[in-house]
Input
Amino acid sequence: LRLYLNGDYNALNRFISLFSVIVRSDTDAQLDWPFSHRVTLSLVDQAPIENDRLDIVRTFIPNPSSSCFQRPNIDMNFGYG
Output
């Protein structure tokens, strides 16, 4: 995951940006490509009062034609988020 606390691109200075990123590994040849498993990301609100907490949970299924989810041929693919 890549996290930009001040946002990135269109979200700059307005939102937190969170990206799922696939990085190259020595074991890539043993995996099935493109990456197609469902991904769930959770941001857990740690407000001191439980009733004030607002967790954020998002799930996505990768698009197999997106370059973000192909086997990396450089150190890191472009992030999805």
About this structure: The chain has a mean pLDDT of 95. DSSP finds no helices and four strands in the chain. Residues 31 and 71 are 9 Å apart (CA to CA). The radius of gyration is 15 Å.
